[in-house]
Design brief:
There is one protein chain. By secondary structure, this protein is α/β, with parallel strands linked by helices. The protein has helices spanning 9-17, 25-29, 57-60, 69-81, 93-103, 119-136, 157-161, 166-169, 200-213, 239-249, 271-274, 302-307, 328-346, 349-365, 400-408, 432-453, and strands at 36-40, 43-46, 51-54, 112-116, 144-148, 180-182, 186-190, 193-198, 217-222, 226-227, 233-234, 253-257, 281-284, 296-300, 371-377, 380-385, 413-414, 416-418, 421-424. It has 2 domains: 34-67 and 348-453, Aspartate Aminotransferase, domain 1 (Alpha-Beta Complex), CATH 3.90.1150.10; 70-345, Type I PLP-dependent aspartate aminotransferase-like (Major domain) (Aspartate Aminotransferase, domain 2, 3-Layer(aba) Sandwich), CATH 3.40.640.10. The strands form 5 sheets. A 7-stranded mixed sheet has the order 4-14-13-12-9-5-6, sandwiched between helices. Helix 4 (69-81) runs antiparallel to helix 13 and helix 9 (200-213) packs parallel to helix 10 (239-249). The protein is globular, with a radius of gyration of 22 Å. The structure holds pyridoxal-5'-phosphate. Residues 118-120, 123, 152-154, 223, 228-229, 257, 259-260, 285-286 line the site of pyridoxal-5'-phosphate.
Length: 459
């Protein structure tokens, strides 16, 4: 089936057996495959020894780089103790230690930690806890969910139901439950310069839903400050605080999906902390175990935990769990990562990296003929492509973003596209010269690929 012939045994095996996530496999097989064998800091190395900057932080997870000596040591030390112990009715030491560390993220306001093993599950748990909580309070009619336009919370049925990523999930709509969607604010900034901002209509729409329906709504779920999967769509500072106040006013839980924004991505441990907001549920995953191992956590209040206490026969138990919830190896790496991350934040290193990324993006792309939009916040950024006259677009199958990302490999960069955009999500510990390499490699790829696509544009 592959049209680009297999060239090595590993490639032959990939072609014969693999089915990659979020990947059109026909397209994958018709282009050269990249097989990585090693990581070093911000770099990934292929079987031939070529080096690529990991501009995607291995799908938004990597914090301290690959093959970090401190994280490796923590992992090995735990491995000498025990590799896995279930948390179903049992405990292991490092789960308790990490839960205590995570309680400090909210200064103890969310002391209860429910471990799982991926972001979707962290959200599923928050939703189910919210639903069950209102049932236990005798308010069964409070079972609706409000979410924001463009939301992405994962690929399981529950998280697809509360998401708004029709491009990914449209096929499954007949099986989803309904959630109320309100408009996202319109806000664009890069390197601290605000290009456009309008929040009032979004907040008004949210309040209107709450006014009319809060007695039937369990929770509002939000990705604070940046909706990553929607293409790094931003909300201005202060928006989250306003939304949180509305939740309080109308007695609706606030679930913050910080699966993407947590652990340094926006320059602090959480986005909630930047805005002085304490949600009812805080969902953490991607960067939690530094991009080493699958681990997720849903943090919540003592008052919510208390509602689930009772005799077994009262049926208040939260019946949810995953086989590898709170795996000890992952917890040990997460603890070591957090210990390293705190001083990096305090030293101002992340603020400097973020502003360098913003400056490089605006210098290279603000006036680029084929770049119709660009934005950056923390260590997240995106650029959007269109034909130079802006009135037309490229046929989907030209795959403008994908072509740029393939060519970037030639310039020593791995980066992911989203339709006709490129998303910049480097490891949190990326160094200044690596940030310059990241933006330059995209610029070289853009200059090489996009002018050739001009002739294909449609009216
Ligand atoms: C990645 C992501 C998820 C889903 O996490 P998985 O570990 O892929 O299930 C949920 N929410 C946000 C904001 C994400 O970026």
């Amino acid at each position: 089936m592959p049209s680009a012939d297999p060239i090595t045994p590993i490639d032959a095996s990939d072609c014969k057996h693999a089915w990659h996530p979020f990947t059109q496999m026909q397209e994958y097989f018709s282009n050269p495959r990249l097989h990585l064998v090693k990581g070093e800091g911000s770099w990934l190395i292929d079987a031939e020894g070529n080096r690529y900057l990991d501009g995607n932080a291995s799908v938004w997870t990597n914090v301290h780089g690959h093959n970090d000596p401190d994280l490796n040591a923590a992992l090995k030390a735990q491995l000498e103790q025990v590799a896995h112990v279930t948390l179903l009715g049992l405990n292991h030491r490092v789960a308790s230690e990490l839960a205590e560390d995570l309680a400090s993220l909210t200064d103890g306001a969310l002391p209860r930690c429910f471990f799982t093993d991926n972001g979707s599950n962290a959200i599923e748990v928050a939703l189910k806890l919210s639903f069950q909580y209102w049932q236990l309070m005798g308010r069964e009619e409070k079972r609706g969910v409000i979410s924001m336009r463009g939301a992405y919370h994962g690929d399981t049925f529950g998280t697809m139901s509360v998401g708004d990523s029709s491009g990914f999930h449209q096929r499954f709509t007949p099986w989803l439950f309904h959630s109320k969607i309100f408009s996202a604010p319109s806000h664009v900034e890069c390197a601290g310069q605000v290009q456009a901002s309008e929040v009032q209509s979004s907040l008004q729409e949210l309040e209107k839903i709450l006014q009319n329906e809060s007695s039937r709504i369990a929770c509002l779920i939000l990705e604070p400050r940046v909706q990553g999967a929607a293409g790094m769509r931003q909300q201005p500072q202060g928006f989250l605080k306003s939304a949180a106040l509305l939740c309080q006013k109308y007695q609706v839980h606030l679930i913050l999906d910080e699966v993407f924004t947590g652990f340094g991505r926006l320059g602090s441990l959480t986005a909630a902390e930047q805005e002085g907001v304490v949600p009812d549920f805080l969902c953490l995953a991607k960067g939690l175990a530094a991009g080493y191992l699958p681990l997720a956590a849903t943090l919540t209040r003592e008052s919510i935990f208390s509602a689930f206490q009772g005799h077994f026969s009262e049926g208040k138990t939260f019946f949810h769990g995953h086989t590898f919830s709170g795996n000890p190896l992952a917890c040990a790496v997460a603890r070591a990562s957090l210990k390293k991350l705190r001083p990096m934040i305090q030293s101002g290193q992340l603020t400097e990296s973020a502003s360098l990324l913003g400056r490089e993006i605006s210098q290279n792309f603000a006036t680029h003929p084929q770049v119709c939009g660009y934005r950056q916040l923390g260590l997240t950024a995106a650029i959007d492509f269109s034909p130079a006259d802006r009135r037309r677009h490229w046929p989907v199958d030209l795959r403008a973003g994908y072509q740029v990302s393939l060519l970037a490999r030639k310039h020593g960069l791995i980066i992911r596209p989203l339709a006709d955009s490129i998303l910049f999500v480097p490891p949190i510990a990326i160094k200044p010269d690596e940030i310059r390499h990241l933006v330059k490699a995209v610029r070289l790829a853009v200059d090489e690929v996009l002018p050739k696509l001009e002739v294909h544009s449609l009216s």
